[in-house]
């Protein structure tokens, strides 16, 4: 192309750039754009927009904004795609405050007219960063400003409402979009179905499914089917769950590892381990590889059934299948060993996995500390507690409370008091179990001065926290930089869009 005389139009170079983007070779595309600038190849605003998009995908926001300056330098005018891409890039890098400021200033100074993609991008970012109320407000303003929301916009708001448990509001918005002629898709229905299943509103689940399949002609995808299988399984409706899997196979929506794991979880919760293992065999027969989550379900069930030998056999099978046990895997096994009173074996297992370089978190330490304390191995528990900081972990409130209760139960009151002081110094409080144990000891034994002092510390620290707690008002000013400005620009003077 460079050897052709005259040079091809910028349109042809843009096509080449677009092809690179579709193949996700973003760094190559940026390098190609740089060469085009150096070699004086004709470029236009579309070329810049493609390059900015590549920079955002490559996490090079600094370069993306320098290209924005290059647009002005060359005499071009950034368009709505330019700014929408930059806003999306900021949001993808968890820079929601900067995205809100940019969006606010652009609208305030009338630099561009946001379109449905811009609004949807901003609304999605607000929802993901916990500003769902502002997202809903912007959604209503969007309609009033003459920009018609599309299926993506509605689905984003509906998903946000469902995650907050506002299922009736989500259903109302779903009905509203249909009334306005905006057709929902699978992404619209899935979160509503999930939250309805969570609150056991099965009649409405059936109604929505009928509407989805019969009226809207939308075939549920694997995600929707899996939601239903999981919900039916957790509610003990195993026959319905199995029937759904049959329907999936009939429709060519073949269940995946997540779907089968939900069914396996249901069998395990009922103690039907033979059926759970049959599901595992089905997974293998379908040429799928069980993952750690699948194994953890079985391990947890066998540990609850106190069948540690079987659990350990499964654990060894994981290594044979090339699976790396997770933190949860080891926590389940340690908890199982401690429940059987095998605290010494649990400690040995802990040191073994530590020596093998497996990841250990504070939850594993808590599990083992709790087991050691309950089985009266307080000295070993104290040694393990001191190892947490040596291994770069900071004891949290639960960890402190476990070790304090262990000392109290074994009448090691002085040590319990020292740990209480350390816990309070770290800004933590005694939990309800520790406080209750202290009260029980004070009532059942001679008034020990150390116990009395500890109890007073519990009461004092609790009152201190209540008196100094910061109450953050749930108003529009709590959204961070740019949030108040955005609301101030858009908020109508005569009516309240949030209420509409």
Mean pLDDT across every amino acid position: 86
So what's the oligomer here? Answer: single chain
Strand count, sense and barrel status of the largest sheet are:
none
Q: What is the gyration radius calculated from CA atoms?
A: 30 Å
**Principal-axis shape:** globular
Percentage of residues assigned to helices: over 70%
Distance between the termini: 56 Å
Structural class by secondary-structure content: mainly alpha
Low-confidence regions: 464-500
What fraction of residues sit in β-strands?
under 5%
Task: Please count the helical segments.
Answer: 27
Question: Order of helices and strands, N to C?
Answer: HHHHHHHHHHHHHHHHHHHHHHHHHHH
Tell me the total number of β-strands.
Answer: 0
PPR repeats: 44-78, 79-114, 115-149, 150-184, 221-255, 256-290, 291-325, 326-360, 361-395, 396-430
Pfam family, one: PPR_1
Keywords: Repeat
Family: Belongs to the PPR family. P subfamily.
């Amino acid at each position: 192309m460079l050897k052709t005389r005259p040079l091809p139009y910028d349109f042809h170079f843009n096509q080449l750039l677009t092809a690179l983007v579709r193949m996700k070779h973003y760094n190559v595309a940026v390098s190609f754009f740089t060469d085009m600038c150096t070699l004086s190849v004709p470029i236009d605003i579309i070329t810049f927009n493609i390059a900015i998009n590549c920079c955002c995908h490559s996490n090079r926001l600094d370069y993306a904004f320098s290209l924005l300056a290059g647009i002005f330098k060359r005499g071009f005018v950034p368009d709505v795609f330019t700014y929408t891409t930059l806003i999306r890039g900021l949001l993808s890098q968890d820079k929601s405050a900067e995205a809100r400021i940019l969006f606010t200033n652009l609208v305030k100074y009338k630099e561009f007219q946001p379109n449905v993609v811009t609004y949807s991008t901003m609304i999605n970012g607000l929802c993901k960063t916990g500003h769902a109320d502002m997202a809903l407000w912007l959604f209503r303003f969007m309609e009033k400003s003459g920009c018609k929301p599309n299926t993506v916009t509605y689905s984003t708001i509906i998903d946000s409402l469902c995650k907050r448990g506002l299922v009736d509001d989500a259903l109302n918005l779903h009905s509203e979009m249909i009334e306005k002629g905006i057709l929902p898709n699978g992404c619209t229905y899935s979160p509503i179905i999930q939250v309805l299943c969570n609150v056991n509103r099965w009649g409405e689940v059936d109604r929505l499914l009928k509407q989805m399949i019969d009226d809207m002609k939308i075939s549920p995808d694997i995600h929707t089917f899996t939601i239903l299988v999981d919900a039916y399984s957790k509610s003990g409706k195993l026959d319905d769950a199995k029937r759904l899997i049959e329907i999936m196979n009939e429709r060519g929506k073949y269940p995946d590892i997540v779907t089968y794991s939900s069914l396996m979880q249901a069998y395990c919760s009922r103690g039907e381990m033979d059926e759970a293992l049959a599901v595992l065999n089905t997974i293998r027969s379908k040429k799928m590889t069980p993952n750690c989550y699948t194994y953890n379900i079985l391990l947890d069930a066998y540990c609850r059934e106190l069948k540690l030998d079987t659990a350990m056999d499964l654990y060894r099978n994981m290594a044979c299948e090339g699976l790396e046990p997770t933190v949860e895997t080891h926590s389940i096994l340690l908890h199982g060993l401690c429940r059987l009173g095998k605290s010494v074996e649990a400690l040995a297992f802990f040191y073994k996995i530590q020596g093998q370089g497996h990841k250990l978190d504070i939850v594993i330490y808590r599990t083992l500390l709790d087991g050691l304390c309950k089985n009266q191995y307080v000295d070993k528990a104290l040694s393990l507690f001191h190892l947490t900081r040596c291994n770069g972990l900071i004891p949290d409130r639960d960890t402190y409370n476990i070790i304090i209760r262990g000392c109290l139960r074994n009448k090691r009151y002085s040590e319990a008091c020292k740990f209480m002081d350390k816990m309070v110094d770290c800004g933590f409080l005694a939990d309800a179990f520790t406080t209750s144990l202290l009260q029980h000891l004070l009532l059942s034994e001679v008034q020990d001065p150390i116990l009395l002092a500890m109890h007073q510390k519990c009461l004092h620290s609790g009152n201190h926290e209540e008196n100094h707690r910061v109450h953050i008002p749930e108003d529009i000013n709590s959204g961070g930089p740019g949030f108040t400005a955005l609301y101030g620009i858009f908020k109508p003077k005569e009516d309240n869009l949030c209420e509409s």
